[in-house]
């Protein structure tokens, strides 16, 4: 009798061990499927080959959560597409009336005007030009997010390009009482699109003009990547969130009087489309904007000398 009881207990223990092992294998399989969904972006549902009510309910609830998440993702993509189309349409629609406004302003300039009328016309033209810049930002941003252009990446002397862009902006910088201090460093070469880098530098300069409270420090250095750094102090009451500074339509100016908040968003888009990145640091009311691009080391002394000419 005792032998029979022992045999039964042994069978029960072995069955329980096998069940636990099988249970562990099923849980491991669930984990593998979840990891696969996260890494490979598959839509494979979670399944269990186990007759356990609680675990089957768990798998069912996981599948429901995954399905809801997928629906939210699809809806977000749909909303993003709609938003891009809306931005593109707005930028196109605004260009037409602005062109007409500037045309009529030019006609008025050719007519006979009193000094007061000419003064008012100059003010109107100034505001029209500012509106033109805002519309161009809308248009450029809409183009970048809809078309996602493929840039021709080439070896460029980043140091020279930054210097040239700053030299071209001297007049407007002086108008805003801003001086530029370029930190001396060896020439830095990057693999990038010259056109896109120029747009990045121009937007960084424009951002400094709008928000700088003192002179601007600019440096181009070679680290793990080629780094363009623009640093300037900002007003004490200027509330800047560096975690969102590159978000579209973000601006520290709550009145949003002269900016779309798209300038730095364009900088980030252009940098990322060339395999680079952006970052911002605010410390003691000094804001630093950094743009990193894939670096290229100088191939030889002769090549470096040629690029510096």
Describe the overall structure:
The chain is α+β, with helices and mostly antiparallel strands and 309 residues long. 60% of the residues lie in helices and 14% in strands. Strand 4 and strand 5 (226-233) form a beta hairpin. Helix 2 (53-110) runs antiparallel to helix 3 (115-147), helix 4 packs across helix 6 and helix 6 (194-211) runs antiparallel to helix 7 (263-273).
Q: What is the strand and helix layout of this fold?
A:
Blueprint: H1 2-40, H2 53-110, H3 115-147, E1 154-157, H4 158-168, H5 170-175, E2 180-183, E3 189-192, H6 194-211, E4 216-222, E5 226-233, H7 263-273, E6 277-283, E7 286-293, E8 295-296, H8 301-308
Parallel strand pairs: 2-4
Antiparallel strand pairs: 1-3, 3-8, 4-5, 5-7, 6-7
Helix pairs in contact: 2-3, 3-7, 4-6, 6-7
Q: What gross morphology would you assign?
A: elongated
Amino-to-carboxy terminus distance: 102 Å
Give the rounded overall mean pLDDT: 81
Query: SSE string, helix = H, strand = E?
Result: HHHEHHEEHEEHEEEH
* β-strand amount: 5-15%
Structural class: alpha+beta
Question: Widest sheet: strand order?
Answer: 2-4-5-7-6
Number of strands: 8
User: Major sheet, described briefly?
Assistant: 5 strands, mixed
Radius of gyration: 30 Å
Number of helices: 8
Uncertain segments are 300-309
The helix fraction, in percent, is 55-70%
